Amino acid sequence: MARASFFLIGVLALVLYLWFSPQYLPSTVAFVGGEIVTMSADSLGAEALLVRDGRIAAVGTEGEISALAGENVHTIDLAGGTLMPGLIEAHTHPIAAALLSAAVDVSGFTHDSRADVMATLHDAAEGFSLGEWLVAFGWDPVMVADLEPPTLAELDRIAPDRPLIILTQMLHDVYANSAALKAAGIDRDTPDPAGGQFVRDASGDLTGTVREVNAIDILVAALPRPPQQAVNLMLSLQYGRYARAGYTTLGVLGPVGRTDDPIGTLRDLAEDPRVPVRTVVYPLPAQIEDGDLRPGEGGERFRIQGVKFWMDGSPFAGGAAWAKPYADTALTRDRLHLDAGHMGALNYEANGFAALFEKYHRLGFQIAVHVQGERAIDRVLDAAEAAQDRHPRKDARHRLEHNALITEDQLVRAHALNMTTSFFVDHIYFYGDRLPELVGHTRTERYMPLATAERTGHRISIHTDNPATPLAPFRALRTAVLRQPRRGGLTIAPAERLDVESALRTVTIDAAWQLGIEEEAGSLAPGKRADLVVLSHNPLTTPPEQWTEIEVLATWIDGRPVDARALSWRNVKLGAALLWELAFSRS
């Protein structure tokens, strides 16, 4: 009898935990008792904020807000915390991040040596696995100093009978064993796809290295697809991680991941009113054509915005199309195995890309292109200029993504073409101490030129490109202001530091402008959506050195606090649906 009572109490407690949510509040909510960071030009006297029916109704003194609120108001005491606009991650890959959360972690964030990485791989190969394939993620020869690329023989010894693939941290190289290559139908006679490579030795035999997106896609196409309900659950969990980091809107650039319908998966998730983050999507060209998608399609929670291209590859895999060769150093020779004078390749020839650019420009898409090196940027700027000459669009806001070595002249030209820039500033934090070995000291002094972009008129965003680097917006913001590498050493390009307010704009109002949602989000102003984040400290008055200590206390969308818990009611339902799907598939 006692056991039954304890069981019933436990079930009741779980139901109450799952069902309780602070989302069920009156339509009028007032925030008082803390600091208000509006990120708008008119922020004087901001002591309190009033939300009515999911929109910001007023910002002002506590007395003004109290007079406007009326009787049926729920008051939130910030208890000394800080209210500011919900953060915006301008460039991320949630499906890939969700699926890779189940991969074996071999990253430089958790490993210090090659021996540690190889031990992890051996343990994973010998341990329990739900699937036939063994997938690892995070191999990083720049972050882990002695991480020599694995040979095909090594990979075959780790997993002689099952497919094994190791994805590098920036996802531009993959290492595969013989079983994985065979499963994908890749042999010594398989031609390299445009912009990709199945790396071979001097005898023409495969080495197991697969380079760049188009070749990697052929390899991972052989991976068994996870059940759709598993994808749904993992993606929902990933959205919770974004919300717990303070994000309320995501820019999803190039939805990739092992699911039959990435766009539909994102749409189904995002349109659920319980999901804690909005989604602005830039599909791949094939996804646009297959789905007959149009810019602006969607609603308040999910919207098609643009189209995504890759013009070059990763700086940390030899793929960046610099204007001059990679530096000839021990890192480039012995770890990345780049020949002296190595130049990263461009993924599109000039005329073909210009035609593609013009096509989507005319259709009204915002075009976003991965560019790291100057040659890649020039090719995109040439295409943009040709498209604008023939079909002018005054507010196209086409995007240049990452921009490792974009020059001042290129920034001036991009601004004149109504283009905008988003910077992957985590390169400075995680790899800054190795940059001189990749590009030399002179080019390091202009790496990720945030201040130059701002000075030449750009409204910039910064991003983490998750899963390429971990979610932590205030780490990235701190790097934009301090430009100090994780492992210490000299400040990287100190002239390119942003001031505190400019840095905060890169994840609020300027990021919103870049995504085309500045009328709805990015600042606390009457009429805008009440997408909010509550922080433990005010970043305007907290020294940037302490920004990573700032805690996200709550995230709100449409005037309601979101449920970002892993054990949320939605996730429990998705878990039950997954169990049902697995049981049904086995019956």
Radius of gyration: 24 Å
Helix content: 25-40%
Q: What structural class is derived from the secondary structure elements?
A: alpha/beta
Q: How can the largest sheet be summarized?
A: 6 strands, mixed
- Low-confidence parts, pLDDT < 50 over ≥5 residues? 9-13
Could you give me the name of the CATH homologous superfamily of the domain at 305-517? Metal-dependent hydrolases
Silhouette? globular
Number of helical segments with 4 or more residues:
21
3D structure, described in words:
This protein has 587 residues and is of the alpha/beta class. It is 36% helix and 19% strand. It has 21 helices and 24 strands. The strands form five sheets. It has a six-stranded mixed sheet, with helices on both faces. A five-stranded mixed sheet has the order 2-6-22-23-24, with no helix packed on it. The longest helix has 18 residues, at 2-19.
Task: Furnish the topology, listing elements before pairings.
Layout: H1 2-19, E1 28-32, E2 35-36, E3 48-52, E4 55-60, H2 62-69, E5 74-77, E6 82-85, E7 87-92, H3 94-100, E8 104-105, H4 114-126, E9 134-139, H5 152-158, E10 164-168, E11 173-176, H6 178-183, E12 197-200, E13 206-211, H7 213-220, H8 228-244, E14 247-253, H9 262-270, E15 278-282, H10 285-291, E16 302-304, E17 306-310, H11 330-335, H12 350-363, E18 366-371, H13 374-390, E19 398-402, H14 408-416, E20 419-423, H15 426-431, H16 435-444, H17 450-455, E21 461-462, H18 473-482, H19 500-505, H20 509-515, E22 532-535, E23 552-557, E24 560-561, H21 569-586
Parallel strand pairs: 1-5, 2-6, 7-14, 8-9, 9-10, 14-15, 15-16, 17-18, 18-19, 19-20, 20-21
Antiparallel strand pairs: 1-3, 3-4, 6-22, 10-11, 11-13, 12-13, 22-23, 23-24
Helix pairs in contact: 3-8, 8-21, 12-13
